[in-house]
Design goal:
The structure holds two protein chains of two kinds.
Chain A (H helix, E strand, L loop, with lengths): L1 H47 L4 H9 L6 H11 L8 H13 L6 H8 L10 H7 L1 H40 L1
Chain B lengths: L1 H7 L3 H4 L3 H5 L4 E7 L5 E4 L2 E5 L5 E2 L11 H11 L8 H6 L1 E3 L5 E10 L5 E13 L16 E2 L2 E2 L2 E5 L5 H14 L9 E5 L20 E5 L3 H12 L3 E4 L5 H12 L3 E7 L3 H6 L9 E8 L2 E8 L5 E3 L1
Parallel strand pairs in B: 10-14, 10-15, 11-12, 11-13, 13-14
Antiparallel strand pairs in B: 1-2, 1-7, 2-3, 3-4, 5-6, 6-7, 8-9, 15-16, 16-17
Helix pairs in contact in B: 7-8
Classes of the chains: A mainly alpha, B alpha/beta.
Chain lengths: ~170, ~300
């Protein structure tokens, strides 16, 4: 009876481990979709309202999910005129804190950190177009992840359960 | 407050160089920046050169700060909140108004559109930061002269650039709006095309404009006058720097709607007024401002048909 309970627990453990790996993938996908939404909101706000970036960051932060929501609000507050810091300084300090522990790849994190490089264009349409690259890149990551997700998740779950059964057989 | 407004124009990296100039904020008139040239400060009617250490000097020396193109870019980016696109229209017009109503004039290489009109500007290498001065009480001398039996008269303020037209207009607005011993407070509408009168930043006036003053910020005069008349029912309309035929038509419209008009224009004499097609009949008082011993003063006031009221 004890052996049976132990085997069941082992099986649940390995399945849970596989599940957590799959959840990380889903979280990455959620973050990337949120990032793409952020770039699209930025494009729209630049084109149609023409407001300066600190104001846009504040207004779009309400439409985003954690942790981007809080990070953009902090960038907006730190960028107020009085502080005299550049966008690059503020962005890098706040966004790098936000990115800590997030399940994004280094390339994906770098893309977000490099956002200030695409600013400084003197026309609304031109500035919005500069953001197109960010939308496209993020979209590519999303598509890649979505295609991989289904098959990969199945493999991870199957491997997890199989590994559990294998260990049970060895131990028994 | 005003000292910090001046310092906030500059990014952190070079802010400290302007501490000493900002301390003399009451006398400070202009900060002139020209790429690869010494930074000039116009203060109390005198020209000074800014040293790298932040000290003001009357002569160019080894310590003079020759501002680089990179530093100019940094200043411009900071003024634009790192969002140049948001200031496209301002740059096209040649100036950006910052918090406190201070005006940053810019010059560089103009980009023309297909229609031959100025579309934008690149390589901005010249900047002139004009410091706005709010002097409460500046209009005390003029208030009795533009009232007749408790009635406010349509007034035109005439002066060359830098002689205090806007400062005088701002204080007139405040006193007319709040009420004074000459007349009770009136509903005032201000069309602040260049955000210079109220010094609005993000919709909030930076200067004291009175308790009954509605401000239409960054709006073309002609459209703004009509919008205010329709929506805010002002008793008095105030506009800065009129001069074109369209401006006069809008002023006439305001007069026909029963509004009193207080306006300013560039000029020195009555001939300048006539030369700019300003119809004398529209105004009942003409106040001439100018400089004496480096100070902005009221030089004279004329009534209709040139009657001298103050000299």
């Amino acid at each position: 009876m004890i052996k049976l309970a132990g085997a069941a627990l082992l099986l649940f453990g390995t399945a849970g481990f596989s599940f957590s790996i799959c959840r990380e993938q889903r979280e990455r996908l959620r973050l990337l979709k949120n990032l793409k939404y952020m770039y699209q909101l930025l494009q729209n706000e630049i084109c149609y309202t023409g407001l300066p970036l600190p104001e846009i960051f504040r207004s779009i932060s309400e439409k985003l999910e954690t942790p981007l929501k809080e990070a953009l609000l902090e960038v907006s507050q730190s960028m107020t005129w009085e502080q005299g810091k550049s966008l690059r300084e503020v962005w890098e300090s706040k966004i790098s804190i936000c990115l800590k522990g997030l399940p994004l790849t280094e390339i994906q994190k770098e893309l977000l950190l490099k956002f200030p490089e695409c600013t400084g264009i003197s026309e609304r349409e031109g500035q919005a177009k500069m953001l197109e690259r960010y939308v496209r890149e993020t979209d590519r990551y999303i598509l890649q992840l979505e295609t991989e997700e289904k098959s990969r998740n199945k493999v991870i779950m199957s491997l997890g359960i199989a590994a559990g059964i294998f260990i049970i057989i060895i131990l028994l | 407050m005003k000292e910090s407004q001046i310092l906030n124009i500059f990014p952190n990296r070079i802010r400290e160089r302007f501490y000493q100039a900002a301390k003399r904020v009451d006398e400070l008139q202009e900060i002139r920046l020209l790429a690869e040239q010494p930074v000039r400060i116009i203060c109390g009617g005198q020209e000074y050169f800014l040293n790298i250490t932040g000290e003001l000097s009357r002569i160019i020396g080894n310590g003079s700060w020759y501002i680089s193109t990179g530093e100019m870019e940094q200043i411009l980016n900071h003024i634009c909140s790192y969002s140049r696109y948001a200031f496209e229209e301002d740059i096209r017009q040649g100036f950006i108004t910052v918090a406190g109503g201070h005006r940053v004039g810019v010059a560089g290489q103009v980009i023309l559109g297909d229609d031959g009109k100025v579309k934008n500007m690149k390589y901005i290498r010249c900047m002139n930061i004009r410091i706005a001065h709010e002097i409460q009480g500046a209009a005390d001398i003029l208030m009795p002269l533009i009232h007749e039996n408790g009635r406010l008269l349509n007034t035109l303020l005439i002066a060359p650039p830098g002689c205090g037209k806007t400062t005088m207009l701002r204080d007139l607005i405040r006193q007319i709006s709040d009420g004074s011993k000459w007349s009770p407070g009136k509903q005032v509408g201000v069309v602040d095309e260049r955000s210079e009168i109220a010094g609005s930043y993000m919709g909030m006036p930076g200067n004291e404009m009175g308790i009954r003053t509605d401000i239409l910020d960054a709006c073309p005069k002609v459209q703004g006058i009509m919008m205010l008349i329709r929506s805010m029912a002002p008793q008095v309309l105030a506009v800065d720097e009129i001069g074109s035929r369209e401006d006069m038509e809008a002023v006439h419209m305001a007069l026909q709607c029963g509004c009193k008009v207080i306006a300013t224009m560039h000029g020195e004499t009555m001939e300048d007024v006539q030369g700019k097609k300003i119809e004398e009949q529209a105004f009942e008082r003409f106040a001439f401002l100018g400089k004496r011993n480096g100070k902005c003063v009221l030089l004279g006031v004329r009534g209709k048909e040139g009657v001298k009221l103050y000299d």
